[in-house]
């Protein structure tokens, strides 16, 4: 069956004529929404911590002039990244382009953080960086990492499109924040240069032979750039090029092949690829599905989403340790990579923007408030490269499991993780700005609060400047005051998402409830408020393995396990690799007579001590406040 589908796609590829479906919401320019409250404090700590200092922690990687005087040539050697390569699937070719990913993803996150924080020193640093990047652009528009004799001329692993995707995303953020026309003009020329050198229907950007090609596969995310260009201009050539890229990707050999259309349409196929590829590739599929009127792509998108759901743990972390390998999620035995958390969150926020479906936002919040917060060290500026929902130790291996084909070191906390790859730390700097950017959207002249968090929106409707500050401690409390300021009184419509866990809505506002959005339309004074509270109770769920876990509101709760902290590497003062050994190895079982109650930000509940078979009362904390923990209970 798979071969039949393949040959049909070769003979009758997806139509290149973009017949785009209407997108439910419109994204607001980056910088329209800024953090407040605890979220701003956390971002400020990140800029003072590992996010703002990664260039000092790994200077050799960050100072590599790979986009300028150090562009790759025929005789370029694989670079020493300071990492252990034991058990890696990648060959030396991957290590040639790797610094482009590290640098550009870090700069993308850094740019977004400093602009959202109005960090003047950081913004000046960014301005200098942008000037240096624009200075590398060739006359024909090329901005990238390859010399003339190599670019656009590959038969093996390369990072051409991937290096561009990571760099151009940061340039796009800078343009949105500053409206700098020099940057916009450079981007237009650079993207046109790609489209001219990989012409539609007369080239194969993803052909690279039949060996491992992780960088080539990453390059499918160049559609991120194309989608933004389309959002800015409305020019359908960017959508058509997205369809071309997805077609070419689907009919060429790819080592990371979960999103290939033949595999999606094969009912016997299980996800198996490197997790971060699988989840970032959801975005090209979404863009292709909305750019085309081809029902086959709609079906493929639904199948792909269902498959990803099976890889996802209670906290929202999808398998990324590092290959999915046909497995379903397991709270103890499958881990998730911080890169995967960011990429899946970014993919779901795109789906939220285009589909307008409120349950997608629940999934986004679950990833950020649980898996992502739960992979940060609550006491030090560092993150886990890999993490599990049930995290019984963090000493390098997955809960003590030994992998015979490699020396596993990913299950620890580090500001850089250089011994593995400096990829998760840059993505940890991206995830919060991307999350914030998607918290407000527009639907024509309606403002839509899609994701809930402490933030402040500045926008304009009908020549009326509007500011809305969401004063809240969410997700640690579920009350909100939307403080509204406008140039003049006006009748406006505001939609506020009702999360799926809400049992009761308390507000004095008159509202309609439609598709899980509260719709409030009235005449607002120049200074006005919307006060809102969502009521809920402790909820007990079961995961795909029928293990139980507890939530209250948007938060997953876990039993924290006391531990001993050890420093395994020192980078700079205050920046260390940390491991955690459990001081208590007791495991607990679920009790039907748990009498769970939420009190003062915690859940108190009864459990059964697995060793003694006696009942005990445990205090569960939000998973984001834990290091070692038991989250699910048999």
What report would you give on this structure?
It contains 18 helices and 26 strands. With 634 residues, the chain is of the alpha+beta class. The protein has 3 domains: 2-18 and 31-75 and 91-388 and 396-438, Glycosyltransferase (Alpha/alpha barrel); 442-535, Maltose phosphorylase, domain 3 (Sandwich), CATH 2.60.420; 539-630, no CATH class. The strands form 6 sheets. Strands 17, 18, 19, 22, 23, 24, 25 and 26 form an 8-stranded antiparallel β-sheet that branches. It has a 6-stranded mixed β-sheet with strand order 1-7-8-12-15-14, with no helix packed on it. It has a 6-stranded antiparallel β-sheet with strand order 2-9-10-11-16-13. Helix 5 packs parallel to helix 7 (160-178), helix 5 (92-116) packs parallel to helix 18 and helix 10 runs antiparallel to helix 11. The protein starts with a helix and ends with a strand.
Map the helices and strands.
Elements: H1 2-11, E1 26-27, E2 33-35, H2 37-48, H3 50-57, H4 59-62, H5 92-116, H6 120-134, H7 160-178, H8 181-197, H9 214-218, H10 222-233, H11 237-251, H12 261-264, H13 275-280, H14 282-291, H15 295-310, E3 336-337, H16 338-355, H17 358-372, E4 383-384, E5 386-387, E6 413-414, H18 424-437, E7 440-443, E8 446-449, E9 455-461, E10 464-471, E11 479-486, E12 490-497, E13 504-506, E14 512-514, E15 517-524, E16 527-535, E17 539-542, E18 548-552, E19 555-560, E20 563-572, E21 575-582, E22 588-590, E23 597-599, E24 602-609, E25 615-622, E26 629-630
Parallel strand pairs: 8-12
Antiparallel strand pairs: 1-7, 2-9, 3-5, 4-6, 7-8, 9-10, 10-11, 11-16, 12-15, 13-16, 14-15, 17-18, 18-19, 19-25, 19-26, 20-21, 22-24, 23-24, 24-25
Helix pairs in contact: 3-5, 5-6, 5-7, 5-18, 7-8, 7-10, 10-11, 11-14, 14-15, 14-16, 16-17, 16-18
